[in-house]
Amino acid sequence: MIRCVYVFLLTTMFYVSSSAQTDYQMSLDNGELINSNTFEFNVYIKSVDSTFQLTSYQCSFSFDVNDGGSLSFSYIPGTSELSNPPSIGVGLKTADGTQKLTFASMPGSDYVSSTPVRVGSFRLEDTNPLDGVNPNVRWNFEGKVTTILTGSNFVNITNPSNHIKNFGDLVNYQVAGVTATGTTDPNTAPEKTIDGLGYYDGDPNSRWAAQSMPQHIIFDLGSEKSVSMTKFSFFNFQEGRVYQYTVSVSNDQVNWNEVVVNASSASEEWTVNQFTSQSARYVRLQFLSSTNNPNNWANLWEAQILGDDEALPVELSSYTGSVDNNNIVLEWLTSSELNNKGFEIEREFDKGKFEVIGFISGHGTTNEKNSYAFVDKELLPGKYSYRLKQVDYSGKFEYSNILDFEVTNLADTYQLYQNYPNPFNPTTKIEFDMKEKAFITLTIYNIVGEKVRELVNDELSKGKHALDFDAVGLPSGVYVYSLNVKDEFFQTRKMTLIK
Fold it and tell me: Which DSSP string do the residues of 76-102 spell out, in sequence order?
C-alpha cells in the first residue's frame, strides 16, 4: 500500500506546475561515519527570501557504495522539525539501473522561514565495513526517482541550484616528506611508503623496513590539516603477520597525541583506523611488536593519511575595520580566489543574532590580489560585531573571524540622516545628531509643502537620537521631513511611502 501511495505522489501531486520560483536552500549537512558500518547525515531547509509554504517533498540521493554488502537506508524517528515529516518511500529504490536513497512526505503544510529547519536525520547502514570512507551521498535530479518540492497549491518549486552539500568525501592528503628511526634494509626507504606501489604491484622493495622493533615512521603533511583516518598496508599481511602499533599526531613533533593505541593490524592489504578529527601536520606510526615475525622487523608497504580538508575557494590575507564617527568601515584583501561568488556581510548588535546587511560580489577565479570594502553607515550607539560569509558558486561557504566595535553616543555637529527603510510601509526610522542641548522641531510635509505631522517640538539633549514614524492614515507618495534647531540649523530629506 505504501508503494502505491509513493507512485501516486510522483505522478499526480509533484507535477502540477514547474513555473513557480521560490528562493530556498536545502542542504545535506553533518555527514559522519558513526561506526565502521554506519553513515548518518541531516537534511535542512530554509528560505533565503520570504517565508514560503512547503506542501510536500520527495528527496533522492545518489551514492557510491558497491562492496557486495547488504545496504539499508532509514529515517531516524523523531528527528524532523517539520509538522509533515518523512513518512513514505524511505529506503533504497532501484530505477534506471542504479540504486538511489529516497524519502518523501505525505501532502501537508509547513511554513519555512530563514531559520534552518531539519527535515530529518538519516542513516545508511552496510553489512560490510565502509572502510572509513564517506559514501559520497549527493543530490539526484535525474531519472524516474528524483528530488521534487512543492509549494502553495502543490506547485513544483524545485530548483536544483538551491540544493547544496556541506560535507564531502575524505581527502587523501599528499605527503610532503617521510622520516623514520632507521632503515636497516638499504633496498627499502621511508619515502617508498608513499609511491603508490604495494604488495600487488610487483616490486618487492617498494616499502620501508627497519630492525628491530620498536621503530617508528613519521609522515609530514607539509602544513596543518584536519586528520581523521589512516590506512596502512603492513608487510606480510597475506602470510598472517599481525603487528601491534600506535598512531599519534602532532603539529610540532614534540607534543604527540595518541589517536590509535596498541591496535592490531588486519589480515588484508589495508588496515584502516578512523578517529575524531585532529588538527595535525605530522602523523607517526609506531611499530611495537608483532606475531609470525621471527627477526622482529618493522615493515610497511604503503600509507595513506586522510581527512576532511578542502581547499578554501578564497585565501583571505587580511580583514580589518575601523570606526568613523557613527560609521563602521570594513576592509579585506584576498590573495587568490577560486569560484568566488562573493561575500555576505553579517552584523550582530549588542549580543543579538547575526543578520545579513549587505553583499559584495567576488572576482570568480583569479590569482591576482583584490581589495574590498563595506561601510555600515549612520549607526546608533552600541556594540557591533561583524563577520564575512564567503560563498562560492556551488553554494559552499566559509566564515571569517569576527571583528568587534563600539559606537559611542558622541556628536560634534547637527545632522539629519536618511530614513530607513526607504521606501517604507507604514513605518520607518528617522535619526539625527545633536551637538549640544537645544530646542528643535522635526516636521513632516507632503510634496506640496503642507504640514502633515510634527514628530518633535521639544528641547533635546546632546547626542544621537532616533524615532519611528508611523504613516498610517497617509496616502502613498513622496514626503519631506525637516529638522529645525533653534531657527539656526535647517536640514531636510525626502522619503517615499508605498502602500
Answer: -TT---SSS---EEEEEEEETTEEEEE
How many angstroms separate the Cα of 374 from the Cα of each of 321, 330, 377? Answer: 9, 5, 9
- For the chain, the average pLDDT equals 87
Question: Pick from 197, 176, 71, 92: which is nearest to 140 by CA?
Answer: 92
Contact present, 333 and 254 (Cβ < 8 Å): no
> 93's torsion region: left (phi>0), alpha (psi -120 to 50) or beta?
beta
Give, as one character, the DSSP assignment of residue 194: G
- We find that the CATH architecture of domain 177-307 is Sandwich (2.60)
The CATH class of 2-168 is mainly beta
What CATH code would you report for 314-407? 2.60.40.10
* Cell numbers at 34, concatenated: 558513526
pLDDT in tens, 316-342: 888 999 888 778 999 999 988 877 889
**Quick one: which of 173, 207, 221 has its CA closest to 287?**
207
Where does CATH 2.60.120.260 sit in the chain? 177-307
For residue 59, give Cα distances in angstroms to 11, 23, 97, 105, 118. Answer: 15, 18, 18, 9, 14
Q: Is 412 exposed, middle or buried (0-12, 13-18, 19+ CB in 10 A)?
A: exposed
Topology at the third CATH level for domain 415-497: Immunoglobulin-like (2.60.40)
Cell of 375: 561601510
pTM to 2 decimal places: 0.39
